[in-house]
């Protein structure tokens, strides 16, 4: 209705123009298909490119989310403890750093983590694994850690109970297909072996190679024990007041960037060499990733859009040839009463049909290309609805824009000259 009112044509004239245009395209099937190829490959390329970018974005975001978007992580760099605890405290992450941060950020949750490589032994296997001493809040600070069984509790820590939670790979290595919950695992540090009861298993968490660039490591082989149990079995940590990681969790709605500035200022003031501590703010990584992704999508979309431009030029070229080829037909239509507007509408509709068909086939090609790229290259791809919709609308718009000029050429022909054309 809106189109007819805008062009001032009747519904019968609109149907007639559509019928003539459709019949003309079907009478030259090969030429029609070749004309549509530009739009097909253009739309397919745009969707495939954007799906690669979207897949990379989701992959990076999933990796970052494993750190907890509301957390600020302070990781101690490799630093062997010495006998001189005072000298070492100036350059190593310690409990007093956490207390200082908590004093300035009272609304934030501040927890500590210890990590040591120990020899773990079960009836099935024996190997060295990372053992982490954590508090009961650890699971809440790192969302998405599904667990079978239970997590460590405050009473486990206060009672220095010898219980542990295994990563998915550690559970498979030491217990195979047997349910690890309730089984015993021996942990040995130097000459101190102890048997620990397995109370839970964390679900597998898959990280790709890009995760290492974000400071992430594979946690599937980790073994978690209560923080105070860890201190009780490895005295030198308690003697030197050292920790391997401090996690500062900002409450929901809090200013993470302000909290990060406070944490950096505390470390700068308390440490003579701040380089001994790595400060990781997942929220900043998310913002950087989003900015990078926007730029990537813009560049990839611009490159792929060249194919759409080429497709539009192809439509214009074929439509100009069609106008020249059908000059006598146009003259006959004008002679029997067709208006210039109706002739214009006929050729615009032909261009729209070409771009619509090319757009639909291009969407299918783009989805197939995304799946093929994912299978062959091993990249994660994700076809988003907005990419499909944008590509399709651009293809239709391109067809209309490049089809208007040939249509105006056809409508501007003089009926007498058109009838005389051979």
What's the structural blueprint in terms of helices and strands?
Layout: H1 2-7, H2 11-26, H3 29-65, E1 71-76, H4 85-89, H5 95-104, E2 109-121, E3 126-134, H6 138-141, E4 147-149, H7 154-158, E5 163-166, H8 168-175, E6 184-189, E7 192-202, E8 223-226, H9 227-233, H10 235-240, E9 245-249, H11 256-270, E10 277-280, H12 282-325, H13 327-335, H14 340-377, H15 385-411, H16 415-420
Parallel strand pairs: 3-8, 5-7
Antiparallel strand pairs: 1-9, 1-10, 2-3, 2-6, 2-9, 4-7, 5-8, 6-7
What's the gyration radius in Å? 34 Å
**Which class best fits the helix and strand makeup?**
alpha+beta
**What fraction, in percent, of the residue positions are helical?**
55-70%
Q: What is the general shape?
A: elongated
Give the termini distance in whole angstroms. Answer: 38 Å
Order of helices and strands: HHHEHHEEHEHEHEEEHHEHEHHHHH
Q: What topology, given as strand order, has the largest sheet?
A: 2-3-8-5-7-6
Mean pLDDT: 82
- Unreliable stretches, pLDDT < 50, 5 or more residues? 1-7, 81-91
Strand segment count: 10
Query: Count the helices. How many?
Result: 16
Work out the strand percent: 15-25%
Largest sheet: 6 strands, mixed, barrel
């Amino acid at each position: 209705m809106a189109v007819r009112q805008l062009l001032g044509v009747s519904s019968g004239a609109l149907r007639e123009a559509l019928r003539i245009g459709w019949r003309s395209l079907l009478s030259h099937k090969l030429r029609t298909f070749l004309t549509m190829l530009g739009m097909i490959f253009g739309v397919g390329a745009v969707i495939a490119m954007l799906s690669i970018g979207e897949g990379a974005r989701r992959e990076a975001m999933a990796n970052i989310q494993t750190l907890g978007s509301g957390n600020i992580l302070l990781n101690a760099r490799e630093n062997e403890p010495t006998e001189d605890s005072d000298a070492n405290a100036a350059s190593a992450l310690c409990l007093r750093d956490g207390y200082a941060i908590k004093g300035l950020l009272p609304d934030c949750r501040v927890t500590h983590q210890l990590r040591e490589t120990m020899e773990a032994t079960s009836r099935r296997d024996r190997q060295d694994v990372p053992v982490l001493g954590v508090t009961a809040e650890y699971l809440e600070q790192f969302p998405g850690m599904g667990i079978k069984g239970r997590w460590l509790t405050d009473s486990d820590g206060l009672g220095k109970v010898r219980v542990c939670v295994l990563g998915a790979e550690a559970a498979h290595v030491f217990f195979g297909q047997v349910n690890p919950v309730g089984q015993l695992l021996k942990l040995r540090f130097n000459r101190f072996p102890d048997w620990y009861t397995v109370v839970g298993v964390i679900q597998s968490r898959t990280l790709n190679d890009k995760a290492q660039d974000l400071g992430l490591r594979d946690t599937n082989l980790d073994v978690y024990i209560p923080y105070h149990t860890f201190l009780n079995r490895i005295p030198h940590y308690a003697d030197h007041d050292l920790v391997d990681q401090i996690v500062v969790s900002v409450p929901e709605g809090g200013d993470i960037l302000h909290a990060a500035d406070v944490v950096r200022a505390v470390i700068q003031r308390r440490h003579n060499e701040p380089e001994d501590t790595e400060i990781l703010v997942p929220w900043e990584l998310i913002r950087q990733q989003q900015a990078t992704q926007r730029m990537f999508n813009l560049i990839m979309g611009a490159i792929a859009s060249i194919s759409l431009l080429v497709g539009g030029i192809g439509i214009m070229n074929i439509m100009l040839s069609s106008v020249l080829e059908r000059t006598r037909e146009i003259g006959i239509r004008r002679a029997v009463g067709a208006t210039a507007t109706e002739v214009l509408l006929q050729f615009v509709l032909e261009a729209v049909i070409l771009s619509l068909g090319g757009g639909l086939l291009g969407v299918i090609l783009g989805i197939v290309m995304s799946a093929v790229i994912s299978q062959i290259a091993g990249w994660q791809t994700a076809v988003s609805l907005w990419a499909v919709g944008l590509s399709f609308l651009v293809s239709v718009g391109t067809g209309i824009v490049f089809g208007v000029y040939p249509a105006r050429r056809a409508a501007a022909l003089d009926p007498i000259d058109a009838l005389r054309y051979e």
